[in-house]
Design goal:
- By secondary structure, the chain is an alpha/beta fold.
- Helix 1 crosses helix 11, helix 5 runs parallel beside helix 11 and helix 8 runs parallel beside helix 9.
- Helices cover 41% and strands 15% of the residues.
- The strands form two sheets. The protein has a six-stranded parallel β-sheet with strand order 3-2-1-7-8-9, sandwiched between helices. Strands 5-4-6 form a three-stranded antiparallel β-sheet, with no helix packed on it.
- The structure holds adenosine-5-diphosphoribose.
- Adenosine-5-diphosphoribose binds next to helix 11.
Length: 263
């Protein structure tokens, strides 16, 4: 494994524009379960997954019911205020500060990359600390809306302060389109990058999982390296989309990668 970490650190030192893609696996060492691993949220609770697949339809059909459900069900991720970023998050933030990592595109809604100090973060599946207008895509911090007060006064759903449209959680639900600004920015970043680090994702959820494929097709291996850091192989490994997999825990491997880059 140390050889692969050395190889990845060479790639980082030589790259002109490296980006990172992350998934739930990078947050498991912070105490948030992933979704499809052996103790994953969906693995343990298929009923919750079934309900998650209906969430966007409920929002479209009846936003007030959607909000009643959201406000009365605890987050599947647990109490995020009590959870801290781990060495994996901090390592990526440090690579950004060192100038080696230009952008981080995450599927995680837990805000832990930002809390670890990463600045250039694209929340591909939204962020649990924010709300978003379903019409104009304006985003708001949760605190800007007294949601419990609106609920007591029977004034759900919350409405956009700009266009008056219906506001939902910023979280992107199954079947919901990726917000256009994030989708466009992500493609721009993929087109610019010459190194993609993919950390802690099973790479089975689309369109996120198409980003590495897009890079491979557009730039080929010669011009862009794709490195996976994950506890297990994924379709990207099996289909030869990634150049190599560093198999193990992101919270252990990423700090070693930073040390190697510094050496
Ligand atoms: N270090 C490295 N890899 C890990 C670690 C760890 N500490 N912990 C778990 N993993 C790996 C698992 O082996 C698995 O391959 O991370 C991957 C997590 O995959 P998923 O649970 O499928 O999570 P993710 O890929 O982020 O899911 C994508 O699906 O449910 C939706 O919207 C949700 O954003 C999520 C999306």
């Amino acid at each position: 494994m140390m050889d692969l970490i050395k190889q990845a650190s060479d790639h980082l030192r030589k790259s002109a524009y490296a980006i990172a893609l992350t998934g739930a696996g990078i947050s498991t060492e912070s105490g948030i379960p992933d979704f499809r691993g052996p103790s994953g949220i969906w693995t343990k609770n298929p009923e919750a997954e079934r309900k998650a697949y209906q969430r966007y339809e409920v929002f479209l059909a009846n936003p007030a019911t959607y909000w009643e459900e959201r406000l009365s069900s605890p987050s599947l991720l647990g109490d995020l205020d009590r959870i801290a970023p781990n060495p994996g998050h901090h390592a990526l933030a440090e690579l950004e500060r060192m100038g080696h990592l230009k952008t981080l595109i995450t599927q995680n809604i837990d805000n832990l990359h930002q809390r670890a100090g990463s600045k250039q973060v694209l929340d591909y599946h939204g962020n649990e600390s924010r709300l978003r207008c379903a019409s104009c895509h304006a985003r708001y911090e949760r605190e800007e809306y007294g949601l419990e007060g609106l609920r007591r006064e029977g004034r759900l759903p919350p409405l956009c302060k700009g266009c008056g449209g219906v506001v939902k959680l910023d979280t992107v639900h199954f079947g919901e389109p990726i917000p256009p600004d994030v989708a466009e920015r992500s493609i721009e970043e993929v087109e610019k990058c010459d190194l993609m680090l993919i950390c802690g994702t099973s790479a089975v959820v689309y369109p996120f999982a198409s980003l590495p494929v897009m890079l491979k097709q557009r730039r080929g291996s010669a011009k862009a390296a794709i490195v996976e850091i994950n506890a297990e192989p994924t379709p990207l490994t099996r289909e030869g989309i990634s150049d190599y997999l560093i198999q193990g825990k992101t919270g252990q491997i990423l700090p070693q990668l930073v040390d190697e880059v510094k050496r």
